[in-house]
Amino acid sequence: MICSNIGQAGGRLTFAGRDTVALAEQYGTPLYLMDEQRIRHNCRIYKENMDRHFTRALPLYASKALACRRLYEIVAEEGLGTDVVSPGELYLAKSAGFPMERVFFHGNAKTDADILFAMGCGVGYFVVDNPDELSAVDRYAGERGIHQKILLRVTPGIDPHTFEAVSTGKVDSKFGIPIETGQALEFVQQALGLEHVQVMGLHAHVGSQVFASTVFYDTADIMLRFLAELKEKLGWEAEMLNLGGGYGVRYTEQDPTVDIGYELSTVGRHIKEGCARLGLAEPMVLMEPGRSIVADAGMTLYTVQSTKRIPGYRSYVAIDGGMTDNPRYALYRSAYTVYLANKMDAPRDFVCTVGGRCCESGDMIQENVPLPEPERGDILAVCTTGAYNYSMSSNYNSIPRPPIVMVDGERDYVAVRRETFEDLAAREV
């Protein structure tokens, strides 16, 4: 099994020790399951190892991976901060009682309304993307009579060799200001000259689903050299350095395993050595794991509706969900591990494409999947769906979104209820 919280008993798939078929019968399908203890375990890996291996550090849960009030409550209880990329995520965090001083507000196109809403919420930090936003934050902070803490987002010019759509640290990027062109130095100088912002440090983010630690070493090296240049030319030292996203996760048996605790220890040592070599005081180090907090804590259950064979071509298995609850295959051709939850002891000798219910040819969950031959009513499970499934879900074809059910030992409870048809029409006038 790709993750320790997945197993089987009596020919049925288990998740967090629970019978998935029984959960499907209880709550219906499609159904998002989340393992609360796995979420807490993943939070603690980052929190404990960053506390141990960095002089000062704070992991920030990247809540674009999955945002709901219960998740913000869990993350806050585990002592993490969070980054939000929209006023909607900020609203959810605040309504969950998340400490605003541990919230970092991202985004490359914050509107005036976004900025004012965030300041009204008392958000701890803005991660400022560009000079136009910087001017707006300074202006609105002045009108409110506050000194707003900010980080400045810069691009280190690194290609992490991940999928193009999730690569964010190259010079040619919609995010941040590039170091290579000299613009980042001007950006910092501009910010330091403003009256109503307090520049706490710099932010860099090179991409998502990163397995190679050399990516974080290279990012740290570039950022520390840039901090040394800022110290020399502007007389300013950063109190914070945000290295961006966390580590990759396993979607299939072919994906590598990452020892996050060990990798963090090497990054911590690398930064300490770099600061000593460059004569820098060690900044507080931030990282933004999202996927690696929630991905393997999630599973989606579906009910098989039909099996269709096209001789000489392929076989299709249709389910009662699809790209509305998991658009990642349609967007990225993302790999997943798929099981028939009620036939775990049967041979996996039927190769098929798992297709969704949407009126869209591209509505697929996975192709070339070996399964026991499915029948109508079987329960199909897709693993590692905790990240970028619910958060990217939609009402395409006017299909209501599934619920999120948290599993916590012998307890299970609804964190987000299933949408209804009435919900679909609720905003119409």
Q: How is the biggest beta sheet arranged? A: 9 strands, mixed
Please give the count of helices.
12
Low-confidence stretches: 160-169
What percentage of the residues does DSSP assign to strands (E)?
25-35%
Mean pLDDT: 94
The count of DSSP E runs of length 2 or more, i.e. the number of strands, is 21
Structural class: alpha/beta
Shape from CA axes?
A: globular
| Amino- and carboxy-terminal Cα gap | 49 Å
Helical percent range? Answer: 25-40%
Radius of gyration using CA atoms only: 23 Å
What descriptive keywords fit this protein?
429 residues, alpha/beta, nine-stranded mixed sheet, eight-stranded parallel barrel, 12 helices, 21 strands, 31% helix, 26% strand, globular
Report what the structure shows:
The chain has helices at 20-27, 36-53, 69-77, 87-95, 112-121, 131-144, 183-192, 213-234, 260-278, 291-294, 328-332, 421-425, and strands at 6-9, 12-15, 18-19, 31-35, 57-62, 81-84, 103-105, 125-128, 148-155, 177-178, 197-203, 240-245, 284-288, 298-310, 314-319, 338-340, 350-355, 364-371, 379-383, 404-408, 411-416. Helix 5 (112-121) crosses helix 6 (131-144) and helix 8 packs parallel to helix 9. Strands 4, 14, 15, 16, 17, 18, 19, 20 and 21 form a 9-stranded mixed beta sheet that branches. The protein has an 8-stranded parallel barrel with strand order 5-6-7-8-9-11-12-13, surrounded by 6 helices. With 429 residues, it is an alpha/beta fold.
